[in-house]
Amino acid sequence: MVDLSVTVGGVRMKNPVMPASGSIAEGMADVVDLGRLGAIVLKTITPDLRQGVKPPRVVEYTDATLFSIGIPSKGPDYLLNHTVPFFDKFGPPVIASISADTVEDFGKLAGYITDPRIAAIEANISCPNLRAHGRAFGMDPVASAQVITAMKANTTLPIWAKLTPNVGDIAEMARCVEGAGADAVITANAILGMAIDAETMTPRLGNVVGGLTGPAVKPVILRMVNQCAEAVKIPVIGCGGIATGEDVVEYMLAGASAVQIGTTNFVHTSAMEQSIDWVADYCTRKGIARVSDLTGALMLPGDQPSEQRGAVAL
Amino acid sequence: MTMTATAQAEAPAGRFPRAENRCRVVSNDPVNAEYRLLLVEAPATGLTAYAGQFFHLLCPTTHTDQPFLRRPMSIYRIDRENRRLGFLYKVTGKGTRALMTLGPGDELNATGPLGVGFDLPAGTQHVAMVARGVGLATLAPLARFAAERGARVTAILSARAPDLLMSRDELEAAGAGVIEVNDLDGTSKPEDVADRLREIHAEVPIDFMATCGSNRLLGLTRGLCAEWGIPGQVAVEAFMGCGLGMCFACVVPVRDAEGKEEMKRVCYDGPVFSVNEVTTW
Ligand SMILES: Cc1cc2nc3c(=O)[nH]c(=O)nc-3n(C[C@H](O)[C@H](O)[C@H](O)COP(=O)(O)OP(=O)(O)OC[C@H]3O[C@@H](n4cnc5c(N)ncnc54)[C@H](O)[C@@H]3O)c2cc1C
Ligand SMILES: Cc1cc2nc3c(=O)[nH]c(=O)nc-3n(C[C@H](O)[C@H](O)[C@H](O)COP(=O)(O)O)c2cc1C
């Protein structure tokens, strides 16, 4: 029997597979057994009530999507009174995710939702910082660190910092949030993109820009996971482009301690369960006793020092 | 929800109320120049579908078309006796073009049944439905359901041209009285359709209306429902991501009784809404 359990950022999970924030909701429980997941990650909430951005909200590519949803949020009371009780009954640890317009609000919201039924809180720092003219917190190392410090000051729950891939040096961001006390980093949120309709000469998304997600982003995020894992001691959670158990293994080899599956859940509701089964078979086949042994087990050719992996020559 | 309860009594669901149903294609033939009928053999969960619900179809990949997301299709025919489901679809883009390539024996992965369908009030005597184009696909099973429950059904089918009108037979077989109108001879103008319905209402009062497929027909239905003080429902379409209420892509503005507007998910809160809730779509 392979030991699939992992402990990530203060949370013990029976396997390393969980949904990415915003990729499942109550409807998923109508189709799959949420009890099988390593953890249940909830969609980001904000302190205020939000309706989200103007439709259209999705554009499709061959193996990716460009979504702009805008974090519709029913606020923290709805989370505690409805969402958490709904997901708590399935068994796996429940991870909340929060976002806010200011550092102080991140802190206050983390304190407000601190609850024994919540195992950790993700800091979604990919959202715009109102004090910095809407530039994402996550693009600014100082603001990112401030968010984590403010959250840690207001809650005893572990904090997972969800990094944005829309930065030049993601490893530096990982180091900053680690320094501020984050218990894990999630690498990463969606890649900023844009789509235009040539016929109508207008943007395809109501919000003009959106986040590129799905299998196509895998090579980019896999590289970032590897860079983050080399930069920090806290666990790295891989997120972006994962669709299969084989992807899960690749992310773990690159340095991830656990993974999150997002867009794939929209197309293949059984993907998370199938991935768990695939990883178990893989470990059996490879004679690997503990899935956690895969983390960082990538075998690099001896002549490739890690410094050279920060650049590319074509 | 009277309908939901009824549908569940008719066919017990499995462990989960919805599933990725692995269906087997029975046939996939054209019904006219634009529309095709896809008939599949479905597992038990799929057969619990009721009128107004939809399935999210995984379209095959072809040389030219690689649709990534699933495509929503209303349930057009629910044949529990032969364990079959039917979809009536219009070939419009890469997803439906890819669907066209499915042949007998192929597998179709259909997630569902999804969404909240029509909720026919108990004791309804006379249902009037107005459908435009493929909107008819959504209303056909409601006609059958209403007729089975002893209600009279009047269906007005609207299309650009007479040869694009479909499913007269399907509806008549379901026990509906069918009236066809089209743009070419001008009979499809909403005011004329409204007058036809007023005449019918004067003879046998209509106590429930359903519509799908056109904003103008929604306006007409809402007006007549208000005029007669009867309930009416509309099946709404929107671009979808997941079909399970998870991604929030397919939202439409919906107004509650106090007039407060909220973005609701077509796939999970709908696709069927009260005609008074939906503003436009
Ligand atoms: C609840 C529901 C039920 C439906 N039932 C039927 C039906 O019974 N028969 C039928 O022919 N059509 C139906 N449609 C519309 C059908 O889903 C679209 O025609 C189909 O998705 C087009 O896909 P495509 O790739 O061929 O076209 P493309 O234009 O290439 O599609 C591109 C994208 O736009 C989306 N899209 C395009 N048109 C529509 C539309 N009208 N509504 C929603 N999304 C759209 C597609 O899903 C896809 O993501 C329904 C839509 C919804 C929401
Ligand atoms: C529709 C949609 C909604 C999302 N909502 C959130 C969210 O609320 N909070 C968050 O941190 N990330 C959100 N994300 C980002 C995902 O959690 C994930 O980081 C991203 O999709 C990359 O993973 P994937 O390629 O597996 O989809 C969302 C993504 C999508 C596609």
Automatic annotation (TrEMBL), chain A:
Belongs to the dihydroorotate dehydrogenase family. Type 1 subfamily. It comes from Pseudooceanicola batsensis (strain ATCC BAA-863 / DSM 15984 / KCTC 12145 / HTCC2597). GO terms for molecular function: dihydroorotate dehydrogenase activity. Substrate binds at K43, N124. The lineage of its organism: Bacteria, Pseudomonadati, Pseudomonadota, Alphaproteobacteria, Rhodobacterales. It comes from the Bacteria. This is Dihydroorotate dehydrogenase. GO terms for cellular component: cytoplasm. Transmembrane segments: none annotated. Its EC number is 1.3.-.-. Pathway: Pyrimidine metabolism; UMP biosynthesis via de novo pathway. GO terms for biological process: 'de novo' pyrimidine nucleobase biosynthetic process; 'de novo' UMP biosynthetic process. Catalyzes the conversion of dihydroorotate to orotate. The active site is at C127 (nucleophile). Binds 1 FMN per subunit. The gene is pyrD. PROSITE patterns: DHODEHASE_2. Residues 4-270 form the Dihydroorotate dehydrogenase catalytic domain.
Automatic annotation (TrEMBL), chain B:
InterPro entries: Cyt_c3_hydrogenase_gsu (IPR012165), Dihydroorotate_DH_ele_sf (IPR037117), Dihydroorotate_DH_Fe-S-bd (IPR019480), FAD-bd_FR_type (IPR017927), FNR_nucleotide-bd (IPR039261), PyrK_electron_transfer (IPR050353), Riboflavin_synthase-like_b-brl (IPR017938). The keyword Cell inner membrane does not apply. It comes from the Bacteria. CDD domains: DHOD_e_trans. Residues 18-120 form the FAD-binding FR-type domain. One of its GO terms (molecular function) is metal ion binding. Its cofactor is [2Fe-2S] cluster; FAD. Binds 1 [2Fe-2S] cluster per subunit. Binds 1 FAD per subunit. Pfam families: DHODB_Fe-S_bind. [2Fe-2S] cluster binds at C242, C247, C250, C267. FAD binds at R71, P72, M73, S74, G95, T96. Keywords: 2Fe-2S, Electron transport, FAD, Flavoprotein, Iron, Iron-sulfur, Metal-binding, Transport. Coiled coil: none annotated. One of its GO terms (biological process) is pyrimidine nucleotide biosynthetic process. Belongs to the PyrK family. This is Dihydroorotate dehydrogenase electron transfer subunit.
